Model the fold of this input.
Amino acid sequence: MTFPKGFLKGAATAAHQVEGNNIHSDYWAMELLPHTSFAEPSGLACDHYHRYEEDIRLLAEAGLNAYRFSIEWARIEPEEGRFDEDEIEHYRQVIACCRKNGVEPVVTLMHFTSPVWLIKKGGWEAESTVSYFRRYAAYVTEKLGSELRYICTINEANMGLQLAALMKRYQLMAQQAAGRGGNAEDKEKTAMQDMAAGGAKSAEGKVQVGMNFEKMMENLKYAAQENAQVFGTPQPQIFVSSRTPEGDALVFRAHQAAKEAIKELYPDIKVGITLSMHDCQALRGGESQAEAAWDEEFRHYLPYIQDDDFLGVQNYTRTQYGPQGQLPSPEGARLTQMDYEFYPEALEHVLRKVHDDFKGDLIVTENGVAVSDDESRVEFIERALAGVERCVKDHIPVKGYFYWSLLDNFEWQKGFSMTFGLIAVDRETQTRTPKESLRVLGLHSIKAN
Done:
């Protein structure tokens, strides 16, 4: 496969998932709660904070020309209003390393994790977060903007509504189970058993982020008190929380405010946002359900993003809909470690559907698969890239493809058990071992002119 001159062919990471010791972030705090919903703490993660030079070199040597990574807000502003010059210098060095290796750095300002102090002040449902995020974006741009061409403001800005829908469905299951006969303790136990029997696993396979719904529900009776001790509220509004419609709009106003701050300083930087999107497919009778899902996942955000320089498209699988709503994966379907259906053709379908309404540039900022065998990963990449190539040939302005992820890393609540990476990381020694999939992705050429 061959792509046009200037096409960004790369891989992506997120700071908290790879850097290690992100001690001022909300996720670090949640991982260490006595009754945490995380399978394990992130700890040193992949030690990318210290090993980024090796990782970027491996990426470049394989033939990739771009690297999408995030700058960690909790490192830059560990306390409200106190900006850490040493940390901004660290990211300056990461960008310089990219340039040295002929790699285009694509920076994300907020990839799920926030400073603890922000969550204490109301988090992603508080109006003040818009101005706080603008200030942070302005600081990073002032310090690093001369060295950047692309900035993603917020990663998967629509994730909160997806989680809200799933949690509503999941909690309804619990209520129905608990409504049976018996005392309160027995009802609760029955509800947990019902959900453990399949509901949690099914729900986790419907959202494109590592969640542990079963453990979250089991820990509900402890969560309020422990959260209050750490965040000052029993229900902290982290970025990956079930979001209200008001909070949903707030996230996109924060994006717009950040974009304005960036453009005031460096008008030529291309600014966009990334969205998590499924290939919403309708079976007979499910047309209205699929359209409603697509409207919630994408179309209703158009007023906020229509003037952006690009849209980051993030897709992993499809979701099918029947007359009663969302359906489980087809019987006998090939599933990934994340319980997603193995369906690389979803990416092409999503790109085409997004282009129907959004006429700006598209960059695939995440697309990948968690599997234990690299042969399946190679297959996924080949089939997904073939779809991207068809889109480009049809004059859809797809300007880049970033595989998720460069490294086997910390997949949020699921810990280190999910292997998305093009490079394996030994958990004991931090030794890197490039996989065949990295070589294969690097083989696809880009025209010189």
Remarks:
- Residues 160 and 241 are 6 Å apart (CA to CA).
- The chain has one domain: 2-446.
